[in-house]
Amino acid sequence: MKEVFEKLEKIIEMRQNENADISYVAELWKKGDDFILKKIGEETAEFIIASKNKNKTDILNELADVLFHAIVLLKYNQLSILDVTKVLEKRLGKSGIEEKETRSK
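and the corresponding structure tokens:
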């Protein structure tokens, strides 16, 4: 699974500076973080609807879209999905309530 995310990040890095007319990643990059955030919102709404409708194929496809756009936003902010993995690893073994209490405000 880790390899898929690493490959995706490399593709995003390669395409961010390509022609926005032929690369969706370049288009996202050119339009900036507000546009990327809007896309994440749209995809999240579609994910919620698919989940509400109990359509497993749509749930998977819409979550893939959410994750893709989230990874683009991470890269736009010079972060990586591996940075997220480190946060999740620190949370393993803690209850959600305990973890929330330890976050800095």
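(Above: one complete record from the training split.) The helical segments are 2-15, 24-31, 33-52, 56-76, 81-91, 96-102.
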